[in-house]
Protein: Pirin family protein
Organism: Cellulomonas alba
Amino acid sequence: MTNLETRPVPELCDAHARLGPVIERYDEREVPLGGLRAMPVRRTLPHRDLPLVGAWCFLDEFGPDHHDMRVLPHPHTGLQTVTWPVVGEIRHRDSLASDLVVRPGQLNLMTAGRGVSHSEFSLGDAPLLHGVQLWVALPDGVADAGAAFQQVTDLPVLEVPGARATVVVGGLDGLASAAVVHTPLLALDVTVDPGADVALPLDPTFEHAVLVLDGAARVAGVEHAPHALLYLGDGRAELGVASAGGARLLVLGGTPFDHDLVMWWNFVGRTHTDIAAARANWESPDAAERFGLVDGHGGARIPAPPLPDVTLRPRRRRHPPR
């Protein structure tokens, strides 16, 4: 998936001191996505006060609604894209010759490295779609390496009384996803039964955040409903979740990321120069040398917006050190 903002805000995401457990709510903002910009998505990462959760640096939720996803070929650098559909089917094509459909319960994971391009189109006529698209920032040694693609169709599920947690990325209580990531990370899709009150084990060295996908729940003692992101800090050995009517949640976690990152449009780099070079390469007649070609679109693609006429400046987490 792409960031189609015509004036994307530059982000420099810095490493940060341990916070300990906190409770912070970050409201979503609506942005348009794809085709004629008819499909709205709700973005909660990056936020001006919360650029990262572990290495998770971007989070869009789309639906549930009837929409056509029509995202033409576009580039990425320095990140992994994570596509997790809740409802609906999405066809992924990329410059690595991948061409397949991802369905609910399946994970698509594309590693951009130095450069890759891809497209994503929903199947059907204005189908019911609901899902999330996330980006993972890549560390040194991988951020400028080769591209890769992986689809994982058999994900482990932790079952506890009153809840089930699909391990999408990372590991939980001895279960591990086959998804290949490059920093310690966690993504769980958790279904909580009506009337249940459960405690999920967490790694206290991770920082965590929770997005409610459906229903409403009491998370870490706080009432939480869909669309906003609840940031929990680090230092938690378990996560308490209760729901009167049942709920579905996305739990994200990871060790605080220790690289400075500049994010602009669909690129992640270390400096303004990295971003400017990636944009210039995508707009060049020789774009395929870095980003490859995505078959099946007759040469159509999404052009890069203009860079701001200034050096991209840092935007850092506003938490004071503790």
About this structure: The chain has one domain: 11-254. The helical segments are 272-283, 288-291.
